[in-house]
Amino acid sequence: MKILVADDDPQLVRALRITLAAHGYDVIAAADGAAAVALAAQSHPDIVLLDLGMPRLDGVQVIEALRGWTSAPIIVVSGRTGSADKVEALDAGADDYVTKPFQIDELLARLRALTRRAVTGPGEPAVSFADVTIDLATKSVTRDGARVHLTPTEWRMLEFLARNPGALVTRQTLLKEIWASDQVSDSGYLRLYMSQLRKKLETDPAHPRHLLTESGMGYRLVLAP
To answer: What is the pLDDT of residues 187-196, one digit of tens each?
Structure first.
């Protein structure tokens, strides 16, 4: 599997190249945003690891450029910890966001999660609420008949809730289900992904009726109209 690492920190790039290669990944690297876009177009990587603060084109501009032609998973790896930066990157089309410094085990878990392709058997049900339909067989979501684009992480979160409608799903369960690791801690990621899902699926995202937060515990999908 080919990974494009786009970062202007040569020491970090070198460390990632060595570590990822040791885990079987084919690593290519770019030191600025424009080079990242060009290299991606040339090499068609399977995954992109991307810093936000790069010269020539910043990370968000790179995400927007890549999303014009590829659906390859994009993980932002950045020292920016503010919610606004995370939301901007996710809105632009990033699939995940890891803050520096990070544990390599956590990054590897996120890579594995994004590359997993769960096998869904025929006859899987569709789950509906309001004007939204979640088709578990085709892994697609429509709203009022129109296709809704979800990132792979957003889909996994919604899918797990849809497979347990009405039930409380704890934060710990979702973290383990999405990233397949007990080492991934909740640093606001679930809240951010839930916010993105509400923007895409709720009539009034500020006052959700279906994608509910159970304070201090987790989340619940309510199918009632």
So the answer is: 588 888 999 9
Dist CA 52 CA 58 (whole Å): 6
CA distance 195 to 135: 21
Shared domain check, 105 and 158 = no
Per-residue tokens: 41 = 């177009």
> What pLDDT does residue 30 have?
96
Give yes or no: residues 101 and 187 share one domain.
Answer: no
Domain boundary among 74, 95, 115: 115
Q: Say yes or no: 79 and 158 in one domain.
A: no
Task: Evaluate whether 46 touches 88 at the Cβ level (below 8 Å).
Answer: no
Q: Residue 72: what pLDDT?
A: 86
Residues with Cβ < 8 Å from 172, sequence gap 6 or more? 218
